[in-house]
UniProtKB/TrEMBL annotation:
Residues 5-230 form the ABC transporter domain. Keywords: ATP-binding, Nucleotide-binding, Transport. One of its GO terms (molecular function) is ATP binding. SMART domains: AAA (SM00382). Transmembrane segments: none annotated. PANTHER family: ABC TRANSPORTER ATP-BINDING PROTEIN ALBC-RELATED. This is ATP-binding cassette domain-containing protein. InterPro entries: AAA+_ATPase (IPR003593), ABC_transporter-like_ATP-bd (IPR003439), ABC_transporter-like_CS (IPR017871), ABC_Transporter_VariousFunc (IPR051782), P-loop_NTPase (IPR027417). It comes from the Bacteria.
Length: 257
């Protein structure tokens, strides 16, 4: 089967530090895939390798069968990063126009439809400098999806969205995947990952700590109740939590008496 996105033994070194060691996985058409991990575990580094923004130190990435080093692969990718600075002097529409020109495509119709669905239509004619955090996220989402990519890569997509916008985003992801696209989401939101993702990869210090469907992982880690429990166990944070709880009891208990 042809994967929409395939990573084979990818890793990244920053100097002598191995930020990501050796990851191999593939995203099937229609799959929503979560990339989870504590702060500094290598999620952003992995996303940047998969989207061609960062060259891996080793291994291979293919998008829709095309090597990521071939710029042709980029047209299959839509990426909404967590922290991309937006040009504050442009209106939303001007920013979208900029991307139409960059891609040599005219996706105005899709952009307008998405703007409508996300409740951003009025704001698109206003300067981005007036946008709230959530409005900026919505604009980034339109840019990521309007050219009909095969792979949608989203870094913390639900952060800063109100409940209505979050529900629209979930619907968008479902429709995108049902049409045969693959979605890769990096997130700290365990509940969303458990509910929305077909499979998740949990990173710990740049290595794969677990890979599978939330349900299969709960079972394989000893019938744990939630994906968050699996996450804490796979990344050894449960031991740390127990130790911290003891320290807090010792510290606060001692001052309270
Ligand atoms: N440009 C860089 N130079 C050196 N080290 C880096 C660089 N970028 C990231 N790192 C290190 O690589 C490791 C992985 O970082 P990365 O940003 O990929 O983690 P993350 O899982 O996305 O973290 P977070 O959840 O905090 O966003 C960290 O130890 C980080 O300090």
């Amino acid at each position: 089967m042809r994967y929409v996105c395939r990573a084979e033994g990818i890793g990244k070194d920053y100097g002598t530090f191995q930020a990501v060691r050796e990851l191999s996985f593939g995203l099937s058409p229609g799959e929503i895939f979560g990339l989870l991990g504590p702060n500094g575990s290598g999620k952003s580094t992995t996303l940047h390798m998969l989207t061609g923004l960062l060259a891996p130190s080793r291994g291979l990435v293919e998008i829709h069968g095309v090597d990521i080093r071939d710029k042709e692969s980029r047209r299959w990718i839509g990426f909404a990063p967590d922290d991309l600075p937006l040009p504050m002097s442009l209106t939303g529409w001007e920013y979208l126009q900029f991307h139409h020109r960059l891609r040599r495509r005219d996706d105005q119709y899709t952009a307008a439809e998405l703007g409508d669905v996300l409740g951003l239509t009025k704001a698109l004619s206003r300067s981005i400098s007036d946008y709230s955090h959530g409005m900026k996220r919505k604009l980034q989402l339109i840019v990521a999806v309007m050219h009909s990519p095969k792979l949608l890569v989203l870094d913390e997509p639900f952060r800063g969205l109100d409940p209505e916008a979050a529900a629209v985003l979930r619907e968008l992801l479902t429709v995108f995947a049902a049409a045969g696209g693959s979605v890769l989401i990096a997130t700290h939101d365990m509940l969303r990952a458990e509910q929305d993702c077909d499979r998740v990869l949990i990173l710990h210090q740049g290595e794969q700590a677990a890979l599978g469907s939330p349900r299969s992982l709960r079972e394989s880690f000893g019938d744990l109740a939630t994906l968050e429990d699996v996450f804490l166990h796979a990344t050894h944070l449960d031991q740390l939590q127990a130790q911290r709880r003891k320290q807090l009891h010792a510290a606060l208990g001692a001052t309270n008496h």
